Amino acid sequence: MRKLFTRRPAALGAAAAVLALTLSACGGSSGGSPSDSAAAGGDAPYTVAKDVSLTGSPTFDKIKSNDKIRIGVKQDQPGLGFKDAATGEFSGFDVEIAKWIAASLGYDKSKIEFKPIPSANRESAIQNGDIDYYVGTYSITDKRKKQIDFAGPYFVTGQGLLVKKDNTTINSEKDLGGKKVCSATGSTPIQNIRENFKSATPVEFETYSQCVDSLKSGSVDAVTTDQAILLGYAAQDPDNLKVVGQPFTTEKYGVGLPKGDAALRHFVNKMFTDGKDTWTKIYDSTLGTSGTKVEQPSVDDYQ
Amino acid sequence: MSTLLDNLDLFTEGFKNTLILFFFSAIFALILGTVVGAMRVSPVPAARAAGTVYVNLVRNTPLTLILFFFALGYPKLGLPQISFMVAAIIGLSLYTATYIAETIRSGINTVPIGQAEAARAIGLDFGQTLSLVVLPQALRAVIPPLFSVLIALLKNTTIAAGFSVMEAGSIRANLSERGEPAMASLLWVAFFFIVLVALLSLLQRHFEKKWKVAR
Fold first, then answer.
1. Is residue A271 part of a domain?
2. Residues 6+ apart with CB under 8 A from A198
3. pTM of the predicted model, to two decimals?
């Protein structure tokens, strides 16, 4: 029994090869190309302002001294905030809104540094000053307002459902009993499912794309999150996916700003209020390509 | 404090599932680890080879990948469906068992060879030698590293949060969506982990005292 360890380089080598094969098979989540690169072209519906003066905004002072603007965005939401893996370009509705704000502050595309930041780290990124502002499906809530400030809302959506195209049993949130419903780990939609739709089985993955992959493979029955995000996925793969029902919650997207920077907040709110045409053009060139028409929500310029 | 009290539902649910993951994974890992450790010192070449391949294959694979396979790959194989909790327990057990096996094997190596020879001389077979003579002595030598492995397992359970198990690792994501400050959430989760690890350390000391050998 002392013959403990016989060296078998051949066996180990074979094992390593098997492992490598398994790994390469696992990494098959292909990120589709964004369907709406129109807005990324040269004909932006906004112009870069010149000689902007904004007094009393520490954020703007910092942007000026850095001579660049750092914006937090999402990178995995087609139609809203999406990073093209090949070119590294960001595109989508949120990204265009972010560029619009930058342009109003006098900074064009070349001076923007986009930082992809996942939901859970948004407040800390703003509080620590890693980014100047955040535009990425950021719902305005009273709790969050204690840590940061919001400009906007610039978009209103609500929790929706994404199912397979050939699914006829799930037509609204009322049909979720006994179904597996997937969303991002800990996200508000999955907390809502866990608390208010007790007959449904919540499934949580790190990213929405994992949920969408599981939906396509049939291991979950529906994906739930803000309908705007789901429309982006449906637009990416209209042959296999569809959005059903009406939004059953209300989420108002705002621009996350450092707490207390009222000057910048009023500036961005004024830009939204005065820029109805620009907003519509941005919407039509990104989310609106799916054919839906939406009105710009009125801004809540709280004091 | 309000971060904890306002969200007690999350903390209880999260740590309850963490403990379930830990207990079942620990039990299965200890059983499997002991078996594999025995296989690696057994007189049967095939068993030794199997044990070696298993330990080196699984131990060299990141835990995230193992859980990824059981949570996302396994359902596509067409085998009986398992819940994500069970998938996580299987993944954690298989992974931790490799470390347990190596710990046990190092314990076996501390038992003087004369013990095994004497056992064989009085007619015990390999299984009896191991279970009656060698393992009881080996186990008490490896209590500290064994508990290190268990503590690592406790902390490793948080990886299951990424694979649809609502446990302590996903508390922060939930709290962040509820608008709680990230630092307070993380500190509370860390605090409870420190308490759990402290309990394990106490247990370790208890066993060390109980099985102390005068040398």
1. yes
2. none
3. 0.76
